[in-house]
Amino acid sequence: MADSILNIIKKRRSIRHFIQKEVADSILLELVEAAIWAPTGGNIQMWYFVIVKENDILERVKAFSPGLLGDPACLVVICSDRKKAFEKAGTLGKDELCVMDIPMAAQNLMLLAAEKGLGTCPVGSFNKKAISRILELPEYISPDLIISVGYPADDAKPPKRKGIGEVTFMNKWSVNI
Amino acid sequence: MADSILNIIKKRRSIRHFIQKEVADSILLELVEAAIWAPTGGNIQMWYFVIVKENDILERVKAFSPGLLGDPACLVVICSDRKKAFEKAGTLGKDELCVMDIPMAAQNLMLLAAEKGLGTCPVGSFNKKAISRILELPEYISPDLIISVGYPADDAKPPKRKGIGEVTFMNKWSVNI
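The joint structure predicted for all components is written out below.
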């Protein structure tokens, strides 16, 4: 029976310890499919997904990504075509739509991975120029976010989160719920 | 029986026509709960959520939000505390973590809403200064994304999406899957 989406949302953790077990290509493609069904402003669809499984390339990416921890079996590097975003929607497209579309796509990918028992971690701390060179990206393609993907080595404990009452207001800032 | 997450991901549409039906506060709080379980870089949790249901305020927000279409019963304005993000993680926090955390939180919110039969639309096109004034936000709080929420008036057709083969590469840009 399918788990409720709120359960999956709550059980997704940022995973930084993985076991050495390959992730099937068919699963990785399903994760990308989930990603492309996230909202994309004006249906611009400026994202691209580079799956990294080859060990040499993965290690080189890791060397330039201080935020990438553990030994994930693979990575999904989510990229955006900033030129296309600019052509279709001007600076709004380039500077705002891209930065909304990419994390939303990533979140879909990570939630589906969680449902499948995979661990993921979104990594924003990496050297963009180096990653572009390693993945041989064209100059107009920006690597925006790396998602590590693999089978988790242990159950990561949930971090503390604020209570809803601390962060939610009704109609204006002065009115707590 | 719960729907599979991939089905929910695919059935979520950006909705711009709503029926006049109130959304219960208890549901809105569940949506916020889903949002706060999205990844947040360094567990900074710099987000705040302003639920707008009062008609006067909703209309004033609409007047300054060209991207906000239809008559949603309510809005969730997702805000970030840029000062806190800067204090905790420097410019990386202010400029990068915020722009990742907010859309990921939004995507959780929109997926749970879709599971509950609600329609949503992420809106990035609005006058930030005006929205800050209307919601009486402190100067260090940035309204980053408006999510309209309501019961959809009709089944929106899915937009065309690219095939996975068009946007996915293996190990480097030159290798299509």
